[in-house]
Design goal:
The chain is an alpha/beta fold. The protein has 5 helices and 5 strands; from the N terminus they run βαβαβαβαβα.
């Protein structure tokens, strides 16, 4: 299985970037992982959120392709516990979906077009988190999911 993580903009906090890198390094033991950073649209007083989301969404779809197995992370998505997420990944690994793309949007979220193109829309929580923190939470949950699949003690 090859995972592609797509993030809008760079991670703003060095400490979070270090933590993300820690889990990305651990994930190399379980799967091939590629990180893709999409240029963030400038958010200013004249920028309208829907326009920003659409422009960033277009950039994301250029990278992923419209036929990709795309999982979008959005607060309105379906919540899974760690075991459920692990089962979803295992199912995808056993299916023909050898390439899985996961997208975390920027500060104003993901476009409706991108959400409609996603095969699954998942949520990390009903709470709102900074998008940089959501990145860390995603890579940690990916690592946790693989350790659950392998029966390793990390999840305990």
């Amino acid at each position: 299985m090859r995972l592609h993580l797509v993030f809008v903009g760079k991670t703003a906090f060095g400490d979070l970037e270090s933590a993300i890198d820690r889990y990305v390094g651990r994930l190399a033991h379980y799967c091939r992982l590629e990180m893709h950073y999409i240029k963030a649209e400038k958010i200013g007083c004249g920028a309208k959120d829907p326009v920003v989301r659409e422009r960033e969404g277009e950039r994301i779809l250029k990278v992923t392709g419209r036929e990709a197995h795309l999982i979008a992370w959005d607060p309105a998505g379906r919540e899974l516990d760690s075991a459920g997420f692990s089962k979803l990944l295992e199912k995808l690994a056993l299916s023909a979906a050898g390439e899985i793309w996961m997208v975390v949007g920027g500060p104003v979220g993901l476009s409706d077009t991108l959400l409609k193109n996603a095969r699954q829309v998942l949520s990390l929580s009903k709470m709102t988190f900074p998008h940089d923190l959501a990145r860390l939470m995603l890579v940690e949950q990916l690592y946790r999911a693989f350790t659950i699949m392998k029966g390793e003690p990390y999840n305990r």
